[in-house]
Structures are given as structure tokens and as C-alpha cells.
Amino acid sequence: MTLSPDRVLPSCVELEAFENYQKQSYRNRCYIIAGDGVQMLQVPVVHGADMGIRSVLVDYSTPWVVRSERALSTAYETSAYFHYYKEELFRIMESGMPTLWELNLELIRWCLKETGIAASLSPTVSFRKEAEEDFRYVIHPKKSNDILEGLGLGKPYYQVFRDRMGSFTKGLSILDLLFNEGPDSILWLKKL
User: Fold this and answer.
1) Nearest Cα to Cα of residue 72 among 110, 113, 31
2) Which segment of 106-110, 122-126, 148-152 scores lowest on mean pLDDT?
3) Which residues pair with 31 in a beta bridge?
4) What is the pTM of this model?
5) Which of the residue ranges 151-155, 162-166, 185-189 would you say has the lowest mean pLDDT?
6) Which ranges of 54-117 does DSSP label H, i.e. alpha helix?
7) Which of these, 131, 125, 139, 132, lies nearest to 170 by C-alpha position?
8) At 131, is the pLDDT very low, low, confident or very high (cuts 50, 70, 90)?
9) What distance in Å separates the CA atoms of residue 27 and residue 23, rounded to the nearest whole number?
10) What is the rounded average pLDDT of the residues 36-57?
11) Pairwise CA distance, residues 156 & 141, whole Å
């Protein structure tokens, strides 16, 4: 990872392209906030013999796209920027990309563009057991989610349903930030 000239946000991010698919990880799920609490959105995958991350197929035999679109619409229809972003996001989700790798790459590129992060993504050319700056296993749904707080960087922003939840809900998808802060997402990220 190389930092941008302002030394705040990465300008080049290397994505692990030769690992095996990790079940129960963020590779095929994210969390959003809904009226009744945190909700998981999941992209189902086809489990097979070859579970290399670039070979994992998305399972379109279940209506996950429709369910995810409904969940996002219900959760964020009152947020300030959801209607601005939803058409393009839904187009990516409906594109029918065959592999989880391709779908994730497209979603990551879209999130970078919409949040204003000027970072280039490059897949690794081989698997490395260890890397100089290795963040592959730092963030995981089964690990504590206090990374930002531990660094003194956990800053809340406005969230829908905050009045019902009583406080800021951490650990949500970057979609939550984008739908609530819109073009100001980059300012919030730089404050970190």
C-alpha cells in the first residue's frame, strides 16, 4: 500500500488474488443498519473443488440481488444520498458478474470513485505468506471491531436510525457512510 501525497489515504492498494476463499469473512458479506438493527447482506457463492478467490462463482439461483436491493432501499430510503447512488449500485449488483472476485472488484472501484478516494487497485501476482503491510486478516467478522477506536480514530457521522439505536453503530459497510454523507464521505475519511 502506498499513501497519497497528503499521506492520508492510500493511492495504490494491492489485492490478494491467490488466496483461498475464506468462509464467513467480508469477502461475500457486509452489514447495514435497518430499522430493527444491524442486518447482514450476503452474496451466496457456489462451493466447489476450486475455491481460489478468483474462481469462486456467485450463486444466482437464489434471489440475493432482489433481497439486497429491497433491504438497502428500506434501510436507506430516508438517508440524504441513497437516491443519488442507488441506480448505479443496483446496476452493478444486477450485472450478473460470474465470479465473486469480479463483482467485488467492480463494487470496490465504484466505492472508491464515489467516496473520492483516488487509489489504484492491483492484484497480486502470486501468494505471499507475509507482506510488509499485511491487512488481509486484520478485519474479520469474528474479530473485535475496535481497530479505529484502538488508533484513536473512531469518529461518528450521522446515521439513519441513530435515534432508535441510541448511539453510533460501528462496523457497517462503507455504503452506510456514502448514503449518509454523500460527497462529504471523503472529508470524514480524511478526518480519520
Assistant:
1) 31
2) 148-152
3) 40
4) 0.85
5) 151-155
6) 64-76, 82-93, 100-115
7) 139
8) low
9) 8
10) 92
11) 20
